[in-house]
Amino acid sequence: MGEDVTNSLTVPTPFYIWTGPLEQFVLGMLALGTPVETLLVGAFNDTGRGAQRDMDLTLHRDGEHDAQLAADQGGMYVEHPGGVDYVGFYCITDNPKCVTCIQMDDSHKVQEIILKSGQALIFDNRLMRHGRKGPVGERILFRLWIQATETGSGVRGSK
Ligand SMILES: [Fe+2]
What we know:
With about 160 residues, the chain is mainly beta. The protein has a single domain (about 5-150), classed as 4-Layer Sandwich (Double-stranded beta-helix), CATH 3.60.130. The protein has 2 helices and 9 strands, in the order βαββαββββββ. It is globular. The chain starts with 14 loop residues before the first strand and ends in an 11-residue tail after the last strand. The structure holds fe (ii) ion. Fe (ii) ion binds near residues 60, 62 and 130.
């Protein structure tokens, strides 16, 4: 009680890690634009989308067709070309061995992030790519894809 919980999330420039309750994460993401897709990310299936399998994912941009990723996933890929501006991963259950990799388009450096329960990674999908390595195991993320709108905090095409 009494902790400083921010009600809104800010526009990622291009990424940050936020800590707070899931409800506030969802409301904060919705304030940035229109939801394109929500998905539980975890090791639920043996085939299909990589987001729901226990497999490494090469660096990619969500919503855009990537030949390598499609090949990795056996041809399964969901496309929303140009429609996924912001991505939010909220960690529901963590796994210290499961590593999220991110790389800004203007950098060669790949940063590694291990999300803990209650933490969220929010990033601009137009400005960076992401991937995953290590076992997914019991880790579950709640993922939201957002298309920025004029009324949201982010303006399409801007940083
Ligand atoms: Fe992804």
